[in-house]
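Form P-L/3: holo structure prediction, ligand copper (II) ion.
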Amino acid sequence: MKNFLTPSRRSVLLGAAALSLPAIVRAQSSFVVMEPRKAVTQILPASYPQTEIWGYGGTSPGPEIRVKQGQSVQRRLLNSLTQPTSIHWHGIRIDNAMDGVPGLTQAPVPPGETFDYDFVAPDAGTYWYHSHFKTMEQMDRGLYGALIVEEPDALDIDREEVLILDDWLMQQTGEIDPDFDAQMARSHGGRNGNFVTTNSLYQLILPAKTNERLRLRLINAANARIFPLALQGLSGWVVAYDGMPMATPERIDDIFMLAPAQRMDLIVDVTAEQGEAAAIVWANEEAPQIQVGFEVSGKASATARPTPRALPANNEPALMDMANATKAKLVMAGGAMGSLREAELNGEIKSFREIAGENQFWAFNGVVGMTDKPLVDAALGETIRLTIENETVFPHAMHLHGQHFREVLADGGMGPMRDTLLVGGRANAEIAFVASNPGKWLYHCHMLAHQDAGMKTWMNVSA
Ligand code: C2O
Ligand code: CU
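OUTPUT (holo model):
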């Protein structure tokens, strides 16, 4: 208790951290309530009607959760929706019982009831939380927020911004399109919105100064949209993917992709002068536009800073025994224009036409949806290599719960640690990881219409 009340050097430096003190203190003795519920808010421009969203505490994004590495997060889910729900803490190396996956790690929480989530955040980085029940609908209606785990020491930056990208499928009436069963989205690229926002604002504008150094925490909370992004008037480096620091910051000099559920931590220096354009550009092919704009006024310093240092490494075991790794394979099939002829659905072999009749479209290793047996059954400490063959024509953002993995690159090198990998249409990939966290871990496509229409399986790590 005393530690939290003694103002540290850091909380004096960072006003935002100081503001969150009461919540942390309260968490010592009781759980902070997170209440998913309906609310009405302005998402579309002011000339349009308001929108009914579902949000934690009635806002979307929900309240930012911010703790220091190694601290615990204690939240009481109080379900004020009219349907069951759960919360998943995406990317956290969590106790399996706290992972929030109904049917695998907990029962769905009925309306009016509560569930206590209590876990430690072992790794620093940019994470997020979201509903994991009827995810396609609940997350789409706004049930998500940022979960920030701070490094022990402050970085050499002027300030940071958490930027949650999303797209909403809106009607002229301001209503979120309620057709979550739409076959088109489920069988093609997923549910793409028609109104793109950052922190629920269209073309968010932030103040900036020339030579200011910012840490930007990008989170893609969209149902299915892959954001191609570019920097303008900013010079930047990637310092972490999916919460996990890069050994060396990677310079950005091209378009970079942020797939659903992925995060990127950037360090950017404002190079634009007052009156010049500075932005994160949504570099879509049809009509590139400002995703986040920076209004530059004044100078933070006379000169630019040197290249940023890497973030301190996290604690997640990263040493893989590639020579003795256990191999497994995942064949992804189905969808429109795919070659899936038949697959197992609810224990029966069915034709693709029959499967489509049930509004399901995708199979992993010939099975639509969850299986009794895990895709991988690993012993603690075992290195797993998983080959992914994407026979579909669509890209998929494949997310593993509970631990991070690396992509095994074609040249034998290893990609950065990630929890979500974008696998291109009709492309193959390989991932490897140390099974370091015991439990039952979901492995699924984070294009939520795909997940809902068959693309999910799980891995077991025995203690
Ligand atoms: Cu983000 Cu399974 O989820
Ligand atoms: Cu997919």
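COMMENT: Residues 88, 90, 130, 132, 261, 399, 401, 442, 444, 446 surround CU-O-CU linkage (ligand 1) (CB under 6 Å).
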